[in-house]
Amino acid sequence: METIVYNSFYLQAILFALLAVVLLICALSVFIKPAKRIIRASLVDAKSGHIFDISHAETSIGRSRSCDIVLEDISVSRFHAVLSMRSKSWMIFDTNSTGGVFVNGKRIDKKQDLKDGDRIKFGNTLEYIFYSTAVTTRKKKKTPVYNYREDFDDSDIDYNPRPSNSGYNSSYKNNINDTDENLDFKDFS
User: Which residues make beta-bridge pairs with 111?
Assistant: First the structure.
């Protein structure tokens, strides 16, 4: 019986010491500066001058939120392209995008080597200038959101579709300022 109590005492002491070490490491991590992020390359928006820093050896580009660089444009695929550093040179890979990737005005087939000053176009509208070193001039802007609705004719789209037998007055579909008094609701009780 004494050995069991004796062993559990040592087990509790070891667990307490382990917990103290973990808490000490957590507390010290608050005061230690994080590792400095190394910027390997930059993409600069040709229109706005917005700078995308590239700090990974492979950087995904596309419309999806899971990409490293998110481009919110309808002509950009969800996973459009990948920038990759290969043996101290940069390459861009088209990941079977619908709109294509253009380097200096020419559509690439699968991959293309990049050099400083190359103009990369994603889809139909977004053009960026590639620099293999970090661009030092910083513009404090958020990621640009491109909205090309003015080029899109949406007059034939019904944004408030209702089935014909739903019980709503047909005037509700065309006039969103109607009040409840103007609506015909069926009594389902």
Answer: 93
Taking 3-state DSSP, the helix, strand and coil percentages for the chain, each rounded to the nearest 5, stand at: 20, 25, 50
Cα–Cα distance between 112 and 102 in angstroms, integer?
9
Q: Which of 93, 84, 6 is nearest to 40 (CA)?
A: 84
pTM of the full predicted structure? 0.54
Handedness of CA 114, 77, 128, 102 (dihedral sign): positive
Tokens of 56: 């990974």
Beta-bridged to residue 9, according to DSSP, are none
Q: Using the 8-state DSSP alphabet, how is residue 37 labeled?
A: P
Q: Which of 93, 96, 92 is nearest to 78 (CA)?
A: 96
Residues in the chain: 189
d(CA 15, CA 38): 39
Q: 117 to each of 53, 110, 127, 128, how far by Cα in Å?
A: 15, 20, 12, 9
What is the rounded average pLDDT of the residues 117-134? Answer: 87
Task: Give the containing element (helix H, strand E) for 33.
Answer: none
Q: Can you tell me the mean pLDDT for 108-136?
A: 86
